[in-house]
Specification:
It is a single chain. The protein has about 375 residues and is an alpha/beta fold. It is built from nine helices and 20 strands. Helix 3 packs across helix 4 and helix 3 crosses helix 8. The model has no long low-confidence stretch (mean pLDDT about 90).
Amino acid sequence: MRAAVLRGIGEKFEITEVTIAEPQDHEVLVDVRASGLCHSDLYVVQTGGMGFGMPILLGHEIAGVVAAVGSAVSRLRVGDHVVAAALQPCGRCRACLNGRLWACANPGALDRDPEATPRLCDETGSIGQLQGLGGFAEQALIHENQLVAIDPAMPFEQAAVIGCAVVTGGGAVFNVAKVQPGQSVAVFGCGGVGLNAIQTAALAGATRVIGVDIQSEKLAMATRFGATDTIDSSRVDVVEAIGELTASEGVDHAFVMAGAPALAEAAVQVLGFDGTVYLVGATAAGTELALRTSPAESPILPKQQGIRGSWLGSSNFYHDIPMYVDLYLAGRLNLDDLVSRTIALDEINEACEALEHGGVARSVITFPARS
């Protein structure tokens, strides 16, 4: 099959032929129909972040059709339409049994035995899969625990982005922050994940939803997705601007979608009483966040504020992915505008450059149905 393989940090994707194994045990062979290009993929390309070895097949926003199943697969059948999730729940530990899939104690349990034939290889040897997925290819071999069957009425392009952008942004709002009607929200970074945080905050009933970015195109998108206010932080002091919008009361929730310490520090400064900052975007190893907790310098202690991480939206994706599909099919979730453009696999390197320079919410690689 054709695939886009990353062979080294900072290199271009190589479009090449890759051999994919037959599914064993709990593995599912998926004909990929759509695969989103995410900032996390770009982060791995540029920095090698997350500690994955090379060569590797990236792509973790996958929608497709089940082509074959291993002998132990019980939840899926050939022909099912599926969405993949970047979490790797073993399904047996205490966290998984309690529905806390993001806290699985044994994520490596879904990998093939190192002594077994690799799932992916070419003439140079085995090829890794980002988070057990690898969607930048015509097919993907994935453990059934990472797949969810969806309504076949759902378009593949829109379904693909649910697997990361939607569950991460929406889950940060619904599952982690648990935004309530009447509350106020600021979202720092209005890319794909940020736009989903904005629209789910509006769905949750937040009465003030503030989008913060430095690109006018993204701020225009934020308004379309439900932001009541937008701030270009390259032109104005964002702390002062949010203070004016909230009559100096601050916001209840501030979501930081990019791993820049300056954004997180600004987010802390715009919180109101009992407010919390949620760190959602990937951060480079060794990044430090300065916290000044004395009342003279920061209101964290007297205003009982907090800072919390949010990993893939604390998603129980077996429940959450079908929920987002239902919201889309009911016309309540905007995923059409999230898909900026569809591209062929051969255009992936150009799409990476467009993503790096901004102005693109999501480019989605599409593949024709296999005969």
